[in-house]
Amino acid sequence: MADHTDTILLVVFCIFASAVAIQLFYYLFFYLSVYLKKPSDNNTSEPVSVIICARNEAENLSVHLASVLEQDYPDFEVIVVNDCSEDNSYIVLGDYLKKYPHLRISTINKDPKFTHNKKFAQFIGIKAAKNELLLFTDADCQPESNQWLKEMVSNFNSDTDFVLGYGGYLKKKGFLNKYIRYDSFTIAMQYLGMAIRGVPYMGVGRNMAYRRSVFFENKGFGSHSHIISGDDDLLVNAIARGKNTTVELRAETHTRSVPFTDLNQWILQKKRHFTTAPYYKFRDKFLLFLEPFTRVLCYVSFIVLLSYIFLWPWVLAVFVLRLITQITVFFLVQKKLNEPGLIGYLLFFDIFSPLINIIIFLSNSRSKPGINKWK
């Protein structure tokens, strides 16, 4: 009986060691590359169209739009698509028009016979744009500096169709804010790191740029226009490749969004984002599944092995190796992306975030979200 138990524990140890090896691969190959990424030395200054879609965003527009309009760049327009707003957005935008001649407004009026998701508003903005280079952000976002536009655009050359930037959340008080920032930060480590390594699978509409011609040549949102979300990640997943995609990470190019303060609202947003996952390429779904799966295997097998005191010096050594690597890479990338105050929560969030995501994903699969929900 003892021999049988030892055999099982040896198998568990092999699973544990394999899980840690895969985890180290993710941290050292994908995530560390975010810290190691060097900035572009191009000096491109092509005309740019900045596109912002807004529905009932009067308050956010009044606070954040000026930071976009006052970018230090020689030739750009800002297009705000005012999509069926029922608040004071029209008045706020009218006041901005008096001061900023490079602001343009595209208005979509409410029609009870026609409902649409955000992709339609995005499409209207892209159609209205007069420039080849398009830079996207949201109404509740603001760039970290007036060099955002200049340095994002500097990444474009004849081979570049997509530039992916970092979009974080404003630091506020409270545990929920820390988890929202941790969640967006770790997702960014993943999609930015994979893009740097030639496997782009998504971007965030808070901070990304691409060519107008590429959008239309590939029929835009056509293949996934019926999906709630995906104006950012599904577009990148369908069109972006390692050779035509680059990443911009300088602190001046980060954007910050207003975070949710209500847990239910954040969960609804996560559910909306999860609706796009089934439409990713198989390669991307596999890579995105493998990391949290091996993370759970790592913790579960670690607990089992320690409870039986099986090869415990080796078990502890392997676990500590992963932990030191994780903390080091997390600290370096946290510094690069200017996300202070998260590392103290790393182990707790690292253990429980897969469980949180599984619960949200499963609850989402049992519900039927409306296909025309805008945001």
- Walk across the major sheet and give the strand order: 3-2-1-4-8-6-9
Could you please say which CATH topology of the largest domain applies here?
A: Spore Coat Polysaccharide Biosynthesis Protein SpsA, Chain A
How far the N terminus sits from the C terminus, by CA atoms, comes to 58 Å
CATH superfamily of the largest domain: Spore Coat Polysaccharide Biosynthesis Protein SpsA, Chain A
Given helix and strand content, the structural type is alpha/beta
- β-strand percent reads 5-15%
The assigned CATH architecture of the largest domain is Alpha-Beta Complex
Instruction: Give the SSE order as H and E letters.
Output: HEHEHEHEEHEEHEHHEEHHHH
Q: So what's the overall shape?
A: elongated
Instruction: Give the number of helices.
Output: 12
Radius of gyration: 22 Å
Largest sheet: 7 strands, mixed
Helix share, percent: 40-55%
How many distinct beta strands? 10
How would you characterize this protein structure?
There is one protein chain. Helix content is 52%, strand content 12%. The chain is elongated and about 80 Å long. Strands 3-2-1-4-8-6-9 form a 7-stranded mixed β-sheet, with helices on both faces. The chain is built from 12 helices and 10 strands. The protein is α/β, with parallel strands linked by helices.
Task: Offer a concise description of the structure.
The chain is an alpha/beta fold and 375 residues long. The chain is built from 12 helices and 10 strands.
